[in-house]
Write a structure and sequence with these properties.
The structure is a homodimer of 413-residue chains. The first copy, chain A, is an alpha/beta fold and 413 residues long. The first copy, chain A, contains 16 helices and 17 strands. A 6-stranded mixed β-sheet of chain A has the order 2-1-3-8-7-6, sandwiched between helices. At the A-B interface, helix 1, helix 2, strand 2, helix 8 and strand 10 of A face helix 1, helix 2, strand 2, helix 8 and strand 10 of B.
Chain lengths: 413, 413
């Protein structure tokens, strides 16, 4: 069972929009044991659409088409599908009712442009779109499935989970299992060196991939087999061995994020945290509060970008700043300790550094960052030297700070 | 002159990594007047790689290949390229020197696994990678160009700008111009209705696309022509007309972000801002400080997630919270006014709301958000009712708050 994804949209081919739909669909298919063998991005052009449908038809059993279903003139997928399947558009009263309800619920008037959205290819089944006005279309042809869905991610996602996945579960019985181990604090080639013996000993049905991103290298094991339980056990055993080799670098698995892992540890410890951020400018707080339920352990932060805020709100000693500079161990530790005291939390986390691209000196170059953690027992601080890229420096600093808290929380369980 | 991008990597086909490289390359090609006609994503599989190279060779003049050049076992692009171009790998002493320097500069030992990175296809020119150890490869064959680059975005980007773009500028003389107008505060179909007459009157060489994302609809005009100046004037004139129809919704153009636009306006006004965030949890601060030079106008924030922080640090009246609830006009206004007073800035911005997915009531449902702005003259506040998605609610609330400040700053110029 092979699937292909055809993403339609000029915006994808001029790089204005990143193709997150394709990765979402590929991931969901993969979880259902269906391999995506190709993703093709083409323009809003009838000829290109029909050519790509023909090519995919030759290679795959399931073809998912995204984009070009909107109400505006540049959207021509519907018409192109009619040509490919040799059918025509007809008004669908069910769809028209759905669209009318959608507008009524929002307290809005139904316009002519939106009424056109009820035109559906005659040979297709229309798929309900609960978050928008463009229905999807479901075609079956010579035992192959073609599904056309709107390109807005917010509309597409529930249509995948509610219409496509239940159907795929019924028809497929081959198993693909992916297990990803998340590491922080070590680069790709050093990691490869450390685990090379383990990697060489992997059985042929399990493949390993290294996936680096700022501050994180993910190790993905992918196995394929007909017996789900044997395959799962096989992967699990290899993960156990891996964890014994590099325990200090592993912070999570699969879809875990550093902020979720830290959040869970705080909950387990019944502990609370607050943050004093300088160079990370709110990113640590934003990461922590992005997790639903964060209010259980996150109390608040002070973003002390200006030195006056450091002294006035965070009570950092002005003379200490004059003596050591704002980017120093002393200030990071003072910020961590004071935010903990002010907000009455169990932990205080702090960052101060030079994010760049300018603002560095010989003594304190761009990329220099101090991270500190205040606990009931002690204050821990660590110096980092990252690169010249502001965005990367902010992300890696935020991860390093959260990781410092994670490592400490683990010793408390 | 047509280009195709071939992205190689199992991680892309199981949806673990989003293909940001392809959109980056497509955008850069587009700016150089070169149309990307197809993006193909395939697996780390020699047969697939060779098949895709053959297909692209038939359709396009420029083929950019990304991924699969790393030092680890799962990377097989180099070997596949050798098969396609009928050549072999040879050690390149220049590349070996570059790699040795790269490790030396980082104070690291050169390992055997990294030495292998100096093996280069004999028929290719090696391209220097200043941010990593995998060189790129440049092949020319029957007047067509093939460029193979590493998949790590941080390594790929400078290789595109330093090696590929200068070459493309020399060989191409057809012009594609894209101009994008950014709107906030109006949905796609309502926008389409408002500008339908203008859209109908667009000349055939200019195409319009609607690109919606949370809180923002981008309108992209794309023109193609042989005379750059005539084409540019033509697009500009249509943009002027558009701005007359919907001035209240337009906040920027092209790559502008709301936070950059607000930052520039603050600079122009020589004004400063601070933020009191509840439901947005640090996102507004993070957006503002993501802009280089933000320290010129952003002083700091208090993230008051817990009500105690609202009262203790932000001096919000406890009885006011008891009377109106933390999510209310009164609290939003008090937060905005107090953060302005405490940090001595010209503007205080505040949010309070229910981001979800839980925590709502009949009276105050998930998605209810109050945004307030305190200025020297008055306090402005506005109520919003967004949906059930936490991430979307946080993004749209942050944009709405920044937009409130933007609109006010514009009246002050």
């Amino acid at each position: 069972m092979k699937a292909e994804i055809i993403s339609i949209g000029n915006e994808l081919l001029i790089g204005q929009v990143v193709n997150t739909n394709a990765s979402y669909i590929a991931e969901e298919l993969s979880k259902s044991g269906i391999e995506t063998t190709r993703i093709t991005v083409i323009s809003d052009n009838t000829e290109e659409i029909i050519k790509s449908l023909k090519e995919a038809d030759r290679r795959a059993n399931i073809i998912i088409i995204t984009g070009g279903l909107g109400p505006t003139k540049d959207d021509i997928t519907r018409e192109s599908l009619c040509k490919f399947f040799n059918t025509k558009l007809v008004e669908n009263s069910e769809v028209l009712k759905d669209i009318s309800c959608f507008f009524k619920n929002k307290g809005l008037e139904l316009t002519d442009i939106n009424k056109r959205q009820a035109l559906v290819p005659e040979k297709s089944k229309a798929l309900f779109n609960k978050n928008g006005t463009s229905p999807g279309f479901w075609f079956e042809k010579n035992g192959k499935l073609f599904v056309s869905l709107p390109g807005v991610p917010f509309e597409l996602k529930p249509m995948i989970t509610e219409h496509l996945l239940p159907y795929l579960k019924k028809i497929n019985n081959k198993h693909i299992i992916h297990q990803t181990i998340l590491t922080h604090g070590i680069g790709e080639s050093f990691l490869a060196d450390k685990i090379s013996d383990w990697e060489k000993a992997l059985p042929p049905e399990i493949k390993l991939a290294y996936l680096p991103s700022p501050g994180i290298v993910r190790l993905r094991l992918s196995g394929i087999g007909s017996n789900y339980h044997i395959l799962k056990k096989n992967i699990e055993n290899n993960v156990i061995k891996l964890k014994e080799i590099i325990p200090e670098y592993i912070f999570g698995e699969n879809k875990d994020t550093m902020q979720e892992v830290v959040g869970k540890l705080l909950k387990k410890n019944s502990a609370t945290v607050s943050v004093a951020e300088s160079c990370t400018g709110g990113m640590i707080s934003n990461l922590l509060t992005g997790v639903p339920g964060a209010s259980n352990y996150f109390h608040g932060s002070i973003i002390a970008y200006d030195n006056n805020i450091k002294t006035k709100l965070l009570n950092v000693d002005k003379e200490l700043i004059e003596k050591h500079g704002a980017v120093s161990r002393e200030i990071a530790e003072s910020m961590a300790l004071n935010i903990k005291k002010i907000t009455l939390t169990n932990y205080g986390l702090a960052t101060t550094g030079i994010a760049g691209p300018t603002g560095g000196s010989n003594d304190k170059p761009v990329g220099l960052v101090w991270v500190a953690l205040a606990t009931d027992e002690k204050i821990i601080s660590k110096k980092f030297l990252f690169g010249n890229n502001r965005e990367r420096n902010m992300i890696i600093s935020s991860l390093a700070a959260l990781n410092m808290l994670r490592l400490y929380l683990k010793t408390k369980l």
